Amino acid sequence: MRQEHLVSTDWLSVHLNDPSLRIIDMRGYVLAVTAEDGTQEARYIGAREEYETSHLPGAVYLDWTKDIVDLNDPVPVQVAGAQQIAHVLGDVGIGDAHTVIVYDAHPAMQFATRMWWVLRYYGHHDVRVLDGGWNKWVKEGNPTNALLPYHKFALFTPRLHPELRAAAEQVNAMIGEPGITLVDARDTGQYSGKIRRGRRGGHIPGAISLPREELIDSASGTFKSDAEIREIAEKAGLKPENQIVAYCNGGVAATSVLFSLSIIGFHKLTNYDGSWNEWNEREDLPVE
């Protein structure tokens, strides 16, 4: 399963000029400032200027805060509709026949895994994440440049997989249901409510805490081995036969957890896209 999810820097350095590949640079940031009372404000930021300064040869750039989100949705950074996704991907030359390689520079690879999830949500399964991302690529002395590539328009055909995305009402109905496990991918401070991003702190009742950074080897920046991920999942009480519904603040960090579980063969994986940005603002939804 691992080779269906990840490519190594060594592999990509050999296949950079493969015409069947399309590489997406998803670098970006979440800038969070925490006040003394535990409240936290976050800004969602793209990194197009960094891309234009230097990137993997042939890579196109997509802004995780604009290009792949519905800017009209009151909940921040919700996945864009099918028409927008088809237009954005087609314009940068990504079509149905391409193998897509995604990278970013986040310690948990969460912007790359967000794009992995978006592509799978719209039916494109031939997508892989560059293990170790931008940081490992550069550290190893692999080639970069500032040339802006041109790829002719390609036809991307969205094929929606609604089971990969959950709405708040669906998640609320799942609380306490057998065979369903809610997973909180935020850090433990937010899970416990000590750090509050929004009006209410805490977590969705019954949710298990699994911070996404635990799934990354901090020394190399790569995803942990299958055995290590499996051990983490087992300790958290996650079972492959259950439906796993992950959330975070904006449905982004959650995809790092979903991606890791997919590596080890979990198949029933759902992203609560609205996540805490939506949940904490709705007084009709319970908090623990």
Q: Could you please describe the fold and organization of this structure?
A:
With 288 residues, the chain is α/β, with parallel strands linked by helices. It folds into 2 domains: 2-161, Oxidized Rhodanese, domain 1, CATH 3.40.250.10; 163-279, Oxidized Rhodanese, domain 1, CATH 3.40.250.10. It is built from 10 helices and 12 strands. The protein has helices spanning 9-15, 48-53, 82-91, 110-121, 133-139, 168-174, 188-192, 226-235, 253-263, 275-279; strands at 6-7, 21-25, 28-34, 40-46, 60-61, 99-103, 127-130, 165-166, 180-184, 208-209, 243-247, 269-272. It has a 5-stranded parallel sheet with strand order 1-7-6-2-5. Helix 4 crosses helix 9. The longest helix has 12 residues, at 110-121. The protein starts with 5 loop residues before the first strand and ends in a 9-residue tail after the last helix.
